[in-house]
């Protein structure tokens, strides 16, 4: 996310974030002199779409990106496909009205650890979409900091402003976000051996059920 913000944000640009959200997102935006504008969520952590429209209207042509975290950190909320498509529709309407690029950044860091609901197909929902995620979080080795960025191949803006080249250059400039080559080679071997990214999802599910039972016994309700 730091790399994406460095690549896309100019001083004064606005990033729209939903609450609650991982606090470091704010720092990633403000480091490059961007401004954060927040959208509330309801009791089920669904994004307030009317407030999203208001925040985009307030930002006008300075609105540069909407950052969606799904599954949410810290809420765990997975934004449904229907809600994602509605957010994308709102973004498209704003982009057409203002005539300026508006990106949707999908933080899908925990998407392979989703218990019940799959994340929305980001690239099918919006053309100027960027997905960020983490191989190391998928495999429960978060200290290795091995992540990735995927840009919708249908994005014309990405091609027009050379986003991919700039992201690569910034990865070198920032330095501290480049994982050691040993870890990168290890990931290749993991993929060759398993033909997919292995996760601890089944183990987590087995650990979760007794906890849900205990919480139910003391009066908590499972609202999933």
Distinctive features:
6 strands; 6-stranded mixed sheet; 10 helices; 224 residues; alpha/beta
Structural account:
The protein has helices at 2-8, 24-30, 49-59, 81-98, 122-125, 135-138, 156-160, 163-174, 181-194, 201-217; strands at residues 14-18, 35-39, 63-69, 103-107, 129-134, 147-151. Helix 1 (2-8) crosses helix 8. It has a 6-stranded mixed beta sheet, sandwiched between helices. The model has no long low-confidence stretch (mean pLDDT 92). It has 224 residues and is of the alpha/beta class. Strand 3 (63-69), helix 4 and strand 4 form a beta-alpha-beta unit. It contains 10 helices and 6 strands.
Number of strands: 6
Number of helices: 10
Instruction: Please summarize the sheet with the most strands.
Output: 6 strands, mixed
- Please trace the helix and strand order, writing H or E for each element: HEHEHEHEHEHEHHHH
- Low-confidence segments, given as residue ranges, are none
Kindly, what is the distance between the CA atoms of the first and last residues, rounded to a whole number of angstroms? Answer: 29 Å
- Percent in helix: 40-55%
Determine the mean pLDDT.
92
Strand share of the residues? 5-15%
The global form is: globular
């Amino acid at each position: 996310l730091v790399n994406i913000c460095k690549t896309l944000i100019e001083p004064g640009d606005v990033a729209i974030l939903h609450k609650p959200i991982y606090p470091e997102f704010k720092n990633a935006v403000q480091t490059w002199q961007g401004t954060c504008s927040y959208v509330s969520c309801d009791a089920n952590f669904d994004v307030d779409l009317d407030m999203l429209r208001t925040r985009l209207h307030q930002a006008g042509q300075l609105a540069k990106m909407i950052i969606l975290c799904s599954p949410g950190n810290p809420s765990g909320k997975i934004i449904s496909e229907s809600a994602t498509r509605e957010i994308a529709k709102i973004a498209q309407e704003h982009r057409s009205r203002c005539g300026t690029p508006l990106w949707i950044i999908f933080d899908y860091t925990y998407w392979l650890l989703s218990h019940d609901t799959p994340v929305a197909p980001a690239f099918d929902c919006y053309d100027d979409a960027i997905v960020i995620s983490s191989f190391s979080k998928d495999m429960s080795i978060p200290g290795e900091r091995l992540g990735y960025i995927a840009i919708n191949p249908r994005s014309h803006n990405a091609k027009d402003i050379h986003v991919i080249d700039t992201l690569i250059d910034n990865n070198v400039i920032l330095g501290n976000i480049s994982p050691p080559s040993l870890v990168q080679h290890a990931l290749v071997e993991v993929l060759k051996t398993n033909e997919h990214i292995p996760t601890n999802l089944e183990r987590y599910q087995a650990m979760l059920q007794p906890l849900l039972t205990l919480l139910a016994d003391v009066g908590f309700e499972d609202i999933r």
